[in-house]
Each structure stands twice: as C-alpha cells, then as structure tokens.
Amino acid sequence: MSTPKDQVDRQLIALLQANARESTANLARKLGVARTTVVARLARLEAEAVIVGYTARLGSEAMDRGVQAYVGISLSPKAQREVIKKLSRLPELRQLASVSGEFDYMALLRAETTMRLDALLDEIGEMEGVIKTTTSVVLALRVDRSA
C-alpha cells in the first residue's frame, strides 16, 4: 500500500474522512487547488489503495441502539481459514483482527439486542475449530477517533 505523497493529499484525505460525500468542487475550494487536481489525486489515491472505499457513519443516536461487544477468540491452527470465512459472513461483525496474547483474534460485534448478541456468541462458540471465546460488552464509548 502506498502513502499520501504530500500535505495536499493528507488534507484531502482528512476532508474526505470528515465528509466522504463532499463534492470535488468544494474539496478543491477548501484545498485551494483546481477541481481537476482533486479528481486526479483521488484517482491516484484510489489506484494506489490509499483510499479503498467510502462509507456512511451512523450518528450517535443510531449507534446507541443495540449493543457492542469485543470477543476474544482462540482457534485451533488448522481451522483458522474456515472460521474466518464463517465470521466474515456475520453482518454484525464490524472488525476482526489477529492479535498477540491470549487470543488469536479479536472481533468487534454490534447487535440490535442482547438476545441477538447472545445468539451470535453461541453461534461463534459452536463453530468447528473455536476453542474458547471471552466477551466484553461495551458499556460506554469514551473516545472514538475512528474515521
């Protein structure tokens, strides 16, 4: 993966992180460059996989609905590929990271209800190759710097 080339690239990325739907004309105005410059830089950043997609972020009211949990998952070595495939199919899975320490993976789940979270945890625990899971339910989000 490439990195932003200069300060204009970094500012462009920051503006898109704040509002990915900002028009190229507005981006150009804010950056003090031509609209064609913004279009060319976006194309390059996308081609170099610096920017890999655009997304919608939910407001705090929508995010407050439901329950979020971190799940530490220990797997048998030969089952990792298949378990990752199954986990990837869960719409409630927000992130899956391989980690060092006690667990092999850390999953971030968001479910509509605690009952759905309970069912998800049962589903994960019953997957062939899952040795152990440990869950921590998020009570409050104190700092969120995610893009």
Can you walk me through this structure?
It comes from Paucibacter sediminis. Keywords: DNA-binding, Transcription, Transcription regulation. This is Lrp/AsnC family transcriptional regulator. GO terms for molecular function: sequence-specific DNA binding. Residues 6-68 form the HTH asnC-type domain. The structure is a single chain. The protein has 147 residues and is α+β, with helices and mostly antiparallel strands. The chain has 2 domains: 7-47, Winged helix-like DNA-binding domain superfamily/Winged helix DNA-binding domain (Arc Repressor Mutant, subunit A, Orthogonal Bundle), CATH 1.10.10; 60-137, Alpha-Beta Plaits. The chain has helices spanning 7-18, 24-31, 35-47, 60-64, 80-88, 114-125; strands at residues 67-75, 93-98, 105-111, 130-137. A 4-stranded antiparallel beta sheet has the order 2-3-1-4. β2 and β3 form a beta hairpin. α2 (24-31) crosses α3. The longest helix has 13 residues, at 35-47. The two termini are 18 Å apart.
Short note summarizing the structure:
This protein has helices at residues 7-18, 24-31, 35-47, 60-64, 80-88, 114-125, and strands at 67-75, 93-98, 105-111, 130-137. It has 147 residues and is α+β, with helices and mostly antiparallel strands.
Which key terms come to mind for this protein?
Lrp/AsnC family transcriptional regulator, single chain, Tscrpt_reg_AsnC-like, alpha+beta, Alpha-Beta Plaits, Dimeric_a/b-barrel, 147 residues, transcription regulation, Arc Repressor Mutant, subunit A
